[in-house]
From TrEMBL:
Ligase found in the keyword field: yes
Protein name stated in the entry: Carbamoyl phosphate synthase small chain
A Pfam family recorded for this sequence: GATase
Domain called Carbamoyl-phosphate synthase small subunit N-terminal: residue spans: 2-132
EC number: 6.3.5.5
GO BP term (any one): glutamine metabolic process
InterPro entries membership: Anth_synth/Amidotransfase, CarbamoylP_synth_ssu, CarbamoylP_synth_ssu_N, CarbP_synth_ssu_N_sf, Class_I_gatase-like, CPSase_GATase1, GATASE
């Protein structure tokens, strides 16, 4: 088996065994603390451009199945693990973790002291990294072409697709949506039209939805600045729910700012507090950016949830219009489903305020 290396931007190097694909992999090195759900994590398009370090020490023990994919491909650019299980045991498993990554063309470094690596990221923040078989051949972290920043166009669909249902019609704007978000809407009986990230307000109107969901997605939300006026117009007309990147885009569209967290929130045990009730929910999270509290216009938006660990903003609600957004993932997969009712709340918003929304829109324009 070949040796491989993780080279970090600050010059430190971690050694391991190279499994999966043996090509060069570049990305932002991040970590996820979830104890299960590696397949969902690998296939979540929000992780595009990132090298994922799994904190849980044993990976691959239940293999890979046909149910857990959150999209059609693995989106992480590389994987770092401690112990690899090569003899998985699960009735639904059809492939090993290593073969799966090889087929998907994604390099993985196994046998790494992930505790040391994670401690380093926690202390110094996320940084760029490279997985390679041949460290001498890697030239420079300054070669920006290796670290792509236009990630959403790469993961979003370019065709409009409708899933039939008898309930309200939701336009799901695809910045890199997770299948579980679509499934949650379909389970609630919605008709769902998935639309590309670059869909304009007028294009959405042609489909006449009852509500709009702005999905999760990879990268820095400010990379989508060009689309903010469209997003603002959409939210002024339709009841809107934003999830993760979608939440950040709503905040940006209304003039707030986003900032980068030191090492992100990625895991299945992030506590958030509902400001109105004081209740704490445990959530699934995966984000590196966050809406800055001071930048939120208090007259327009109220903060609905805050992170219990670092007090960062976890949710916003417009004071007048049916616009809500959450930084965490109510669809879970992987992680707890405590906040799944957010989807039901969204549908209530659609049903109760559908008529009013049009009145608001008139008044607003
Ligand atoms: N899951 C997401 O939508 C992630 C949002 C954004 N890319 C971030 O890292 O903050």
């Amino acid at each position: 088996m070949d040796k491989g290396y993780l080279l970090l931007e600050d010059g430190e190097r971690f050694e391991g065994i190279l499994i999966g694909d043996d090509d060069l992999s570049t990305g932002e090195v991040v970590f996820n603390t979830s104890m299960t759900g590696y397949q969902e994590i690998l296939t979540d398009p929000s992780y595009a451009g990132q090298i994922m370090t799994f904190c849980y020490p044993l990976i691959g023990n239940y293999g890979v199945n046909h149910l857990d994919d959150e999209s059609q491909n693995v989106h992480v650019s590389g994987v770092i693990i401690s112990d690899l299980c090569s003899k998985p045991n699960h009735y639904a498993s059809f492939q090993t973790f290593a073969d799966y990554l090889k087929n998907e063309g994604v390099p993985c470094l196994a046998g790494v002291d992930t505790r040391e690596l994670v401690k380093k990221i926690r202390n110094n923040g996320t940084m760029k990294g490279v997985i390679t078989k041949n460290p001498a051949s890697f030239s420079s972290f300054n070669d920006l072409s290796l670290f792509d920043t236009s990630l959403v166009p790469q993961v979003s669909t370019n065709v409009v697709k409708t899933y039939e249902g008898n309930g309200p019609h939701v336009a799901l704007i695809d910045y890199g949506y997770k299948k579980s978000i679509l499934n949650a809407l379909l389970e609630e009986g919605c008709k769902v039209t998935v639309m590309p990230y670059c869909t304009t307000y007028l294009q959405i109107c042609q489909y006449n939805p009852d509500g709009v969901l702005l999905s999760n997605g990879p990268g820095d939300p400010t990379a989508l600045s060009k689309w903010l006026p469209e997003i603002k117009s959409i939210t002024k007309k339709y009841p809107t729910l934003g999830i993760c990147l979608g939440h950040q885009l709503i905040a940006l569209a209304y003039g707030a700012n986003t900032d980068q967290l030191p090492f992100g929130h990625r895991g299945g045990n992030h506590p958030i507090k509902e400001i109105e009730t004081g209740k704490v929910w445990i959530t699934s999270q995966n984000h590196g950016y966050v809406v800055t509290e001071q930048s939120i216009n208090d007259d327009e938006f109220m903060i609905t949830y805050k992170n219990v660990n670092d007090q960062s903003i976890e949710g916003l609600k417009h004071r007048k219009y049916p616009i809500e957004s959450v930084q965490f993932h109510p669809e879970a997969h992987p992680g707890p489903i405590d906040t799944y009712p957010i989807f039901k709340q969204f549908l209530q918003n659609i049903n109760q305020t559908g008529e009013m929304t049009y009145a608001y829109a008139k008044e607003y324009s």
